[in-house]
Structure formats: structure tokens, C-alpha cells
Amino acid sequence: MRRKIAWFAPLPPEPTEIPEYTARLHQEIEREFDVSYFAEVDSGFLCVATDQRYRCRPGGVPHEIFRAIGECDVAFYEIGDDPKFHLHTLFLSRAKPGIIVLHNHRVHSLIEKIYKDRLGDREGYITLMQRCYGNIGAEAAAAIWAGKLPLHQVVDDFPLTEVATANALALIVHSEEDAAAIRRCTSVPVFRLPPPDSAEPREYVAELTRVTALVEPMRLRRAKLLLAARLGERLAHVPMSGPVAQQRHRACAEMITELLGNAAASTRLAG
Questions:
Q1: What was the pLDDT predicted at 128?
Q2: Are 86 and 79 in contact (CB under 8 A)?
Q3: 185 compared with 267, residue with greater pLDDT
Q4: What's the rounded Cα separation, in Å, for the pair 176 and 182?
Q5: Which of 14, 55, 234, 251 could pair with 44 as two cysteines, CB 3.0-4.6 Å apart?
Q6: What's this model's pTM, rounded to 2 decimal places?
Q7: In this structure, are residues 267 and 260 in contact, taking their beta carbons and an 8 Å threshold?
Q8: How far is CA 44 from CA 29, 53, 81, 93, 135, in A?
Q9: Which residues contact 164 (CB under 8 A, 6 or more apart)?
Q10: 253 falls in which pLDDT band (50, 70, 90)?
């Protein structure tokens, strides 16, 4: 059975390298998967096949798109360094986990442009740097914002990699340097695939297929844990008085136990 995937990336004729990457793989990806392509626009996302727009404010997430992603087995998110093409994608990837194709583990340039040029949120930027790197990060953020510290001088010290990797099911990178840097800051599975321009598209997509299959148990585990958490919240509000209520309580508790057991089994499969 063919897997369905959602692919979020800038597409031709946008003037960046990533559309060339996607175009090179286009035919082979569609030979292997049923693909829904989404391109980022100023107001949110555009579904290429249907021309449907999913609108949101900068830094927000269009919740209507969750249903479209939910119809797919997994979402792929391309993350580069230009907020024109990756602002909404970054925030969506954190809200709706998927496989992130990260073209450089140093995403500080993207983050700084988002907070300064698109959101105008100095305090949010400083708070983010403090959360990731403590007081020294906050001091660096204030200096960068004020133009007193060139970003290129400290991007290796404060790459903000964890902002892009948070909540991902898996990551795909194209260099050993990126793979090693990401593995130092996250337990998320990292797969190194050669750059598409140095590999045959068929071989590259075969690797994508392998990664997608390996990630499937992890995706199911997260879904089961989320459902168990929601059932737990509902269980807390079920009154215990009366035989009918007690029966519902037991049924709900048994379902939670089963979901948690299945989630553990999915973890063993993924490992």
C-alpha cells in the first residue's frame, strides 16, 4: 500500500536552492508516494494541487491544515534559512510533528530574522536564547539585536538547533557535521542522506522510503500517548457514584492501559 505524505517546501520557480532539490526528486517521490505539496506564502500555506490557502498570522499555525496533514501518513518539512519560505513551516513542524529535512543545523540566522524582521519581538528572541543557553545566551541575544555583536561571529556557539529539532519524529541532514551536531543536542533519530545533487534520485527516494518506514512506529506511539492523555483527562471528570459510572470508569482505565502498552510496543519496534 502506497504511503501518503505531505511535503512542505518552497517550489519552483522560487529563487532558492531548495526548489531545485525538490524538483530533482519530484518524479521519483511521486513514483513511491502519494504526495500533497504545500508551499509557504506570506499569509500561510498553499496546497499546490487544490490551490487551497491555509491562512495564519506570522508565527502562528493554521489549525485547518491539521486535517490535511492528518490524512497523510507523515509530513516532511524542509527547513532552510529564509523566513520568506520557512517561517510558518518552522512553527508548524513544532505543532504537528513530522520528518524535518534540515539543510544546516545552524538555524540561528533564520530564527533571528523571524523574530526581528517578521515578528518584531525582541523579548521573545531574548527569552528563547535564555531558555536554550542561559544568561549568556540572553546577553548575546540583546547584543545581536542591538547590532553590537555580529551574528556570524557567534552562530557556532549559539546555533539554536534545538528550536528546529524540537518535537520532530526524525531528522534528515546532508553532512556528517550536521548529523554529529544534532545528535549532541537531541535524542531524535538523525539520518544522513547525500545531497540530492550528488545522488541518483531513485537511490535518494529509496532512502526516504526507508526512513519513513522506520519512523512509522514512533508516529503511532505518539498518537497513542496523546489519545491516552486525553482519555486520562476525561477519566478525571467521570463521577464514581453508581454502577454505570463505575463501569465507564473501568472501561476508560482499561483503554488507557491498552494504549500505553501498545505505545511501549511501538517504542521497542522503533528501537
A1: 95
A2: yes
A3: 185
A4: 10
A5: 55
A6: 0.77
A7: no
A8: 24, 7, 17, 13, 34
A9: 79, 90, 93, 100, 102, 105, 107
A10: low
Residues 206 and 249 in one domain: no
Q: What is the DSSP string of 99-158?
A: EEEES-S--HHHHHHIIIIII--HHHHHHHHHHHHHHHHHHHHHHHHTTSS-HHHHTTT-
Cα–Cα distance list, 92 to 85, 178, 248 (Å): 13, 22, 36
Query: Are 54 and 91 in the same domain?
Result: yes
pLDDT tens-place string over residues 138-188: 999 999 999 999 999 999 999 999 998 888 888 999 889 999 999 988 888
How many residues in the chain? Answer: 271
Determine the Cα–Cα distance for residues 127 and 167; give it in Å rounded to an integer.
19
The torsion defined by the Cα of 250, 252, 253 and 258, in degrees rounded to 10, comes to 120
* Residues paired with 7 in a beta bridge: 37, 76
CB 103 within 8 A of CB 79: yes
Please state the domain count of the chain. Answer: 3
All residues at 6 or more sequence positions from 106 whose CB lies less than 8 Å from its CB, including other chains:
155, 156, 159, 160, 161
Gap between the Cα atoms of 104 and 119, Å rounded: 22
Residue 25: domain span? 4-106+159-215
pLDDT at 56: 85
Same domain membership, residue 97 and residue 22: yes
- CA-closest candidate to residue 76, choices 38, 114, 48, 28: 38
* CATH code of the domain in which 101 resides: 3.40.50.2000
